Automatic annotation (TrEMBL):
It comes from Heliornis fulica. This is BBS12 protein. PANTHER family: BARDET-BIEDL SYNDROME 12 PROTEIN. GO terms for biological process: chaperone-mediated protein complex assembly; photoreceptor cell maintenance.
Amino acid sequence: LPMAFRDVNARRHIGLQQLSSLALAGRTLLGPMKSCKFIVDESTNQSTIICSAVRLIESLDLTSAAGQLLNETIQAQNKEFKTGRSTLLFLVGAWSNGVLECLQQNVPVSAIVSVMSEGLCSCCERVQCLQMSIHDVNKELCSSCVRPNSFKSKTYQIERDDLLNPQSFLYVQKDISAPEVVVPVNSCSHQEGDCNLSKCLLSPWDSFGSTTSLVRPVGDKSTSVISGSGVTASSCNEQKLTHSRYFSTLGKCRFSRQQDKFEGYHSGQSPDPCECYGLGHLAMSLSHGNQTSTKLLQSIVAYQRERAEHSGSSHLNIAEIVTCCLLGLPESYSCISPGFVTLVSPEQSAVIKYFEDKPLRILLMDGDLTEQYRHLGFNRPCNVRTVLEHPSLQEGRAGNLWLSSMLDILISFEVNLVLVKGNVCKNLMEKCIANTILVIGSVSRDVLWAFGEVTSAQPVTYLTQVNAACVGSGAHAELWKACDGRAVDLGELVPVGIKARGIPLLTAVLTTTVASKMQLIEDQFWTSVYRLHHALNDEKVFLGGGAVEFLCLSHIQMLVEQSLQPANKNAVKEFHSCWLAAPVTEYKSVVLQALASGWKQYLSVVMCNTAKAASELEAWTSIDHHLKKAANCGSTSAYILKEFRRGELLGGDSGPFANHREGLKVYDNVTAKVEAWRRALDLVLLVLQTDAEIITGPKRNQLLNSEVSGEFMFL
């Protein structure tokens, strides 16, 4: 193959320049107040809205080696944590610029690698003092958010009867086997924005199979009775509207308080605020202002918490959560639905109407339902010659025979519902519909496992393996109904719900009327879920709002000052590597300044994106002011803790919770954030140490005729 290489180990390091340019596109994605971007596909002219680094990188044409390495790094962070990707992308660009400045000053590559690596390790050790345990965070959040004087104001006053009002809770869908009960929906007409979302609410402790109540709207009444509970719910308290119902944050705060207190009161827990409120407030603090996803997550936490063996345990099982995206409904219709919600064709929905309110015999398939499918590891006989790999099932007699035999198996075992992990043969699907058998493909393994647990169905790889013990029973299917009680028909696809008694599975139904926004909403939901998941796994969180990065910046500047004082023996205590030898020590201050510039740029961009500073110069001035105050305080960490508790760190109350109740703070994940730092620096140093780029594939003439032909040496 024709090959060429170009020297990249120069002052204008091409790989680092490419990283810097790619990272520049993601500056507006940093911080809680992100600015979305339109990505337009030139081939189809279709557009989508993105608000995360992973979607941005996926949409770019990454032809360079550095760009591909950046993509792999961000994808690895996304696969493991689902958060920290924008931080990683930004720091890659900031530190690439810092390294380029070091190269301009003739700093050796070995010195850059050693000093920056040791500097980041020192920062990771230093910021451990800003970690807080989940228990302490819950206690602090709850004591500041639910203390008695928090409820004395007219706006936030909540009575016990009002806590029992179903209109106060996020919509969790009704059961399919419950009796019907009348619940008013007009008593909160002055809060249309919030009440439209919760016209037929289900209390979070009513798991599937319990004596739950279907709800239907009736006339304007001031009270409602929920049968079997002995509870009377009063009408909503009046709420003053701020600007518009779409911008009213008072009702949202009020909702989260009521939901948590409602849950704790009825589950018989102790009045300890940390037991009743903790995860709800923690989810909000980790959401960085994404309230829609947080409300859905709070409903999931309440539901799973009631199913846990020990009430009040910190429990979030991601394997029991799936999403279903419905395009065409307002975002206010987003909700949590027990069971599995998915989209099917209108022909399949007709089968569901036939089976509605009837128990179904269910079969689970761990693979594709096609004639050509073979399981992983299958070895074809060595003495068989393949004549045709994919024959037409409509024309071939053998294909028709396979279709008939598969259909006979399903009919003989009286199977009504088949959930398939992979693809489904289109012709077999049509024959099953004609015989009133519902087949749904592309079902995740977690969904199959959940239905297998409650229906006793055993997954099979091929239909020929089916026996009586593999078929489960007790599943139910129905058309999915929106919060107003009406079935939804989206034209080409129809949402349906599949449930079974006692199934722990929950579906987050995400809705929007803007097609290009659908992926964004789903990404934001999963980010909120995984932030809470990682916080519970780590059992600790970082102080948010730039506190950790500010401490890193202050710490690195202290090391810079120490490095400028060779006579000070304390200057070498922070580092223990061999790079402290005389030839390298002289470059230490320059390299550490490059590392510190990354933290300073990070803080300044976050402040600008959140409108805490009008310009980058103003942000830098504010950061320097806080650095001086921290130095005068004597202890940077103590200064950060004081300012964090006062809500005045780096700009004050203009963050994502500026309009929320007093006491709600911002926190960050520990492992995800630190790993994003490490991955960002590792990528920069990897590209830095690449002394040549070898190109294979393109023809010689293509490279000779290109604009950069002078940079290549042909082999």
